[in-house]
Structure formats: structure tokens, C-alpha cells
Specification:
heterotrimer, A mainly alpha (about 190), B mainly alpha (about 90), C mainly alpha (about 450), A: about 190 residues, mainly alpha, Four Helix Bundle (Hemerythrin (Met), subunit A), about 80% helix, elongated, B: mainly alpha
Amino acid sequence: MKMNKLTKVIKYPPGDLAIWIFIMAELLVFGLFFATYAVTRIDNIELFEQYQQTLDTTAALWNTLALISSSYFVIRSVLAVNANQQPQAYRFMLLAMLAGLVFVVIKTNEFAVHMDHGITLSTNTFYMFYLSLAFFHYLHVILGMIVLLVLARNLKRGQYTVTDSSGLESGASYWHMVDLVWLILFPLVYVM
Amino acid sequence: MNANKSTIWVTIIYTLLVILTLVTYQIGESGLRSLDISLMVFAIAIAKGALISEYFMQLHWVKGIWRLPILIWLLLLSITIYIAFTA
Amino acid sequence: MKYTSQMVAKPYFIAAIGLFVAQILFGVIMGMQYVVGDFLFPEIPFNVARMVHTNLLIVWLLFGFMGAAYYMVPDEAEAELHSPLLAKVMFWIFLAAGAVTILGYLLVPYATLAEITMNDLLPTMGREFLEQPTIIKIGIVVVALAFLYNIGMTILKGRKTVINLVLLIGLVGLAVFFLFAFYNPDNIVLDKMFWWFVVHLWVEGVWELILGSLLAYVLIKTTGVDREVIEKWLYVIIAMALITGLIGTGHHFFWIGTPGYWQWWGSIFSAMEPIPFFMMTIFAFNMVNKRRRQHPNKAAVLWALGCSVMAFLGAGVWGFLHTLSFVNYYTHGSQITAAHGHMAFYGAYVMIVLAIISYAMPMLNGRKVANSMSSQVVEMWSFWLMTISMVFITLFLTAAGIVQVYLQRMSDDPLPFMVVQDKIEMFYWMREGAGLVFLIGLILYVISFFVGRDQPEAQLPK
């Protein structure tokens, strides 16, 4: 496929242009959130560093691995459709959803632990940001899971082919975006 | 053939992403904290984002302006974070 | 026009325009009262004029939305309206309720109105924009339910299009959020919070869906661009409108006693609210550039394009100006808010209703697709007069607002409210002048319906 793509000039990203406009708008929102986090941190460095220590970095590690794997399975699914191997594409999509589910389970548990400790948005500025960012991203994962579910259903029906996989690629691009945002969120909020 | 090549390719990228993630985690666990380390961690994250954009989102093969949206986003974010963390 | 039942839209459109004229008359009166405080006192006190001005706006826009739905839904669903009779009956009920309410405001003191309408049984009166007597509010709900039933049944039995679906979601949301008008908690923080569930989630939430749907319809009809392309844009626009609009409600929660995180949530998400409007602008111009055919109704295309631009400026840019909490700390409730309110309502909702009226009215009047050229010329004059004078109203109020914020809230030596009002009198005079030009534009708009009726339809140049 890479060779195919090199032989002809591709002007547009995979999937529908509308989804890319949406992805850009989403990234703008997350970008603004990240920037606000960083700017607010300037005046609250000690507070941020202190409460950063209370987060579960190991859970975040597993979550990162889960999302990266999920993204990987999704691209494998896209590649399989391009290679005309629909059954394999379907299996990869199921794996992607499984990995996504791992993320949801771990993250839900993290939120539950915070709630047990009585932590809310009003606890302090760090938690306000952490919970807002994590929860907003969490909602995106759930939306993405629904997208993957639709893709898997369509794959099972054999709806995507080598020549017509725009829907699959649109959904895949969205899921990669969800992954991408987490890859930034993880070091920024948990580690730095 | 070609399909095989690109699956090998994305698998290499995937392995790279996993390794970079483990490195980030180790840095976090090591308890070392300094501005330089923070910036390094963030640089790794930006690199991971670029890999996602280029190979998972397949923008590497897109010619022209549409190759860039994610990369530009990553660049702007890096500048913002750098300024905020060194301020 | 393909379906005879679309005709029920006509009385709705006429009522909308009639109430629009009344709204602007009260606007001009109030503009005068800003500078000549006892103008028309005691017959029409300022607070009453304001209530009438804002209530009429909402009511005529609702008439416009309903008319638009009755015209568009059968066309999109490719089916006759479920019950034209119900639509006609509801029209008269709604008009009577509206007229009674406005007369009530004008003829008896508000407290007396509350008493006669037995507000104490279920107190809902007294909140800005939701001043209507409880019984009238119940009437609105009944009309809305009958309307939704009528539209919903039509959509169910016919072709299901994305445009119809988005409109239906918007209209259902409109009805559901209005229910918060009946919830009147004793706690003043909660009271304010739920009040915004109506006010904000209407204009910055579900109404945007209605706007997007109507705009997409007019564009499909006038440009002939593929439905598939238009639908994709519509999906993206409404998704963005909902994400930013729903959480963006937080920008009203800055100073009413809600938890502090709303400062962040409200600022960040509402700062993104211009995005869907910006997308709408790109969308409208893109579709018109890609048009497959010229449409003889130039006026309708002009309204649609104008709507997308003015909505972005008024709702998007002027909203953004004062939406960040640290800016809003100073500008809250100043003339900046008034500037934003005027241009946002005009750009987003007035213009989309006028666009669909402009598109539909020729057919409702028995034309094939468009009015005569001379009628369209007058209509386009009215477009420019109203739009440009609205830009000036906005600019004058913004200038007034900046001076007001500086003198009253930011300077080292802040002045009292009324002293500042005296100092910005000049801007109010200029605003009143622009308002009169707007009224002239509106009169021209009404005249355009009576011009060139016996002339042939506008033709495309060959």
C-alpha cells in the first residue's frame, strides 16, 4: 500500500474531509485545554507537583499501552481492507475494541478511586484540570468506541472494499486522534 | 507484497511507540524531577504524536497542506508548553 | 411547491413579519428612552418596552421556525403534512396567546397581570425573557407539542433526510429545554442556573441545530449541490455546536454562585463556540461557489450567505470578545453584552428566518421559483439597509460598552452607573439613528412583497 501511495500523488488525508475538519476542531479544544493547564501551572508549580504524585502512573502506563495497541489494531484493520482481507480486518477491529475497553475499565476504576477519596472538581486547581481533561478525553474514548463498533459491524457486512473504505478511514482517523491526545495528556498531567 | 511491507512498517512504529512509552514511565517512576527532564519527556510525547500522525493517520503519504495539520498542532503545542514551563 | 399542505406555512410567515415590525418599533422607542428617559412615560415605561421588545423577538422567531418547518418538512419528507388543520388551529391559538400576552404587558401593571393569571398557583413569572404568565407558558407547551406531533408524524411516514432529522432534534430540544421555565427553585443560585437552561441552551444549543438545518435546506435548494456533501457538513457543524454549546453554558455560571471550576469550563468551551459558526460560513460560501446551477431567487441566496457571515460575527466574534471569565469579570452585563445580543440574534436567527421566507414566499404566493426582479431589488436593498445598520448598532454599543467598562469598573476612580450613562449618551444617539435606518430597511422589506407582483418572474441571464 505504501508503494501504491508513493506512485500517485495523494492530496487529501484518508477518510472524509469533514472528519478532518472535526479532528482539527477537537484538537483546538484539547490544545487550548493543555495550554491553559500549562499557563495556570506557572503560578501553582508546587501545588501541581504535589498532587501529580497522587496520580496512579502505573494505571496511566497501562492505559497508554492500551490506546497505542488499539490504534495499531485499527491501522492493521485498514491495511487488511486495502489488501482485500476483510475477515482479518474484522478481527483486528475486534482487537482494537478490546484494547479500547481495557482503557475504559482502568480509567473508570481510577475515577472511582478518586471519588472514594472525596476528590471533586472543587478540591483544588490541579484536580480541577486533571479531572476535567481526563473526563473530557474519557468521553471521547467512549464516543470512539461507538465509532469502532459501527466500523466493526460494517466490516462484518463486508461494506468496506479496496476502492471504498472512506468510512473506515474516517473512523480510524478519529480514533488515532483520541490516541494522540492521550499520548500528550499522559506525560503532561502525570509525569512532567 | 506491498501490504506485507506496510504491516511490517506499522509494526515497527508500534514497537517504537511502546518503547518510548516505557521510557516515559521509567522517567516518571525514577523520581528524578527537573525542568530538563520534564522537557525531555514532553519531547518524547511530541515525537510519539508525530509518529501517529505520519504513519497511523497515514499523513506521511499526503502531499501538500493536508500533511501538516497534526504536525502544526504538535509544533504550536510544543512552543506553548516550552514557554509555560520555562517561564 | 410540491405539496399543497406546505401552504400552512404562509400565515406563520406573515405573522412573523408582522411581529418583527412591532418588535423593531418597540426597539426604536426604547432606544429613545435611553437618551430621553421619560419618552412615552407613563404609557410605555422602559421596563415594559424592554420586555415587549425581547418577548416579541422570541415569539416571532418561533413563528418563523414553525413556518419554516411546515414548509420544509413535507418537501424533504416527500409527503403531505400529517394534519394541516392542526397546524392552522395551532397558528390561531399561538397568535392569540402572543397578542394577549403583549397586551397584558402594555395594559396592566405586571403585578396585576400576575394576579389575574393566578401566578401564585404555579409561580413562573418575573424572570427575564420568561415573563409570560404561567397559563401562557402552558399554552406554549401545548402548541409546541401539537407542532412536534404534526412534524414528527410527517417525518415518520416520509423520506428520512438528515436535514429533517437535525431540525426535529433541534425542535424537540427547544420544547424540552423550555420545560425548565416551569422549574423555579427557591435557591437563587439554582434558580439562575436553570433559567440559563432555557435561555442559553436555546440560543447557543438547540436553536443552532435549527439554524444549521434551515441553512442546509436553502443551500441545497438554491445551489443544487449534492445532498451527501451538504449532509456531511451538517453533521460536523452540529456536533461542534453541541460540544461547545452545551458545556459552553458554563460562561453564564461565572458569577452566580456556582463552583469555581465553571470559570475554566465556561471559558474554554465557550471560547470554542465560534467554530461551528465559522464552519457555517465556510460551508455556505463553499456550497455557493460549487453550485451546479444559478438560482433566479438571488435575494434568498443573499440572505443565506449574509446569515452565515453575520452569525459568525455576531454570535462568534462578539461572543468571544467577552466570554473568557477574566474579561467577563469587567464586561458582564455592560453594553458589550447588548452589542453581542443584537448582532447575534440578527445574524443567526433573524436572517435565517428571513432567508427561508425569502426562498419560500414566492412559491407560497403562486410563483414558480422566484419573485420578479423589481421585488428582489427592493428586498436586497432592505437586506443591505438592515444588515449595515445592525453592524453600526453593534459598533456603537460596543464603543459605549468599552467606555462604560472603563469609566465604571476599571479606572482608578470609578464613576457611578448613571454618571457613566450620561457620558456615553452620544453613542446612544448614534445607535438610535442606526435603529431608525434599520426600521426603514424593515419597511422596505415589507414593501418588497407588494412590488412587481404583476411582473414576470426573474429569469436567469442566458
